[in-house]
Amino acid sequence: MNKDGTGTIIKIHKRKNYLSRKAPKLRGASYRGERLEQIIAANIDDFYIITSADEPTFNHKSLDRFLVSGESSSLHPIIVINKIDLMTDDFSNEWKNFYEKIGYKVFITSVTNNRGIEELKLSLNGKKNLFWGHSGVGKSSLLNSMFSHLNIYTQKISEQSAKGKHTTVTVTMYPIDETTFIIDTPGIREIDPYGVKKEDLSHYFIEFLPYIQECFYNRCIHEHEPGCAVLDAVEENKISLERYDSYLRILDTIEDDLKF
Length: 260
Prior knowledge:
The chain has helices at residues 60-72, 89-102, 117-123, 139-146, 209-212, 229-235, 241-255, and strands at 18-22, 37-42, 46-52, 77-82, 106-108, 128-133, 172-175, 181-184. By secondary structure, the protein is an alpha/beta fold.
C-alpha cells in the first residue's frame, strides 16, 4: 500500500476461476448482439447468493439466474435466505427444503433475531468467500453482524419502490484472518449469466443432469423436442415446474442475443 492509500500491481497471477455477468443495459440504449462481459471477482472458493424472505420480496427466478452464473463458472454456490423474521417459518423452510432437495446448501438467517448467523460465520472459515445478491437483501448487514469491525455502511429499503439502495459501490475483499477472506460486492438490480449457450444451459440446472443423456437428440434444448427425457421428468414431477419455468425464461434471454 502506498502512502497516499493507493496500491501498486506487482504481479498478476493466473485465475483459477472467476464470476461474471452480462454488463447491465444502459437506460434508453438499444443493443444488437450479445452484451459485454462484466467480471465480478476471481479466485473464489465459495459463492454465497444472498436473498431475502421479504423487503425485497423473495424471487426464486432471480435466484436461479444467480445459480446458473455460479454453476457455469464452476463455483460452489451456497444460498442464504435472509430477513426470515419478516416471514413465517413455513415460508422459509419451504424454500430451504426446495433447494436442498436439488442439492444446494441453504442457510436461513436474520440479523434482527440473530438466527443462523453463527452457523453461517463458521462456514466461511479458511476460504475466499464471495457474497453477491440483489440490492437491499441485507448482505452488508449480515457481514457487519458476523464481523462488526468491518463496519460496512448500510441503508434502509426505499419506502416508495420497496427495493434496495446501492450502499456497497465497489468490489472489496476483507481479510478476516490469515486464511479467511470475504469478497463484498455491490447489490445489483438484474442478473443475466454471461457466455451460456442454449445447448449448454441445461447443464447448469443440476437436477437436469441425470436426464440430459437420455434425450433422443444430442443437441436437445429441452423445450419441445420429441423424445426429451427432461420434459418427461417434468411431467413425472422429478423436476419441479418452478425450476423448469426458470430454465425456459433464461433460455429465451439467450435466444435474444443476436449474432452478427
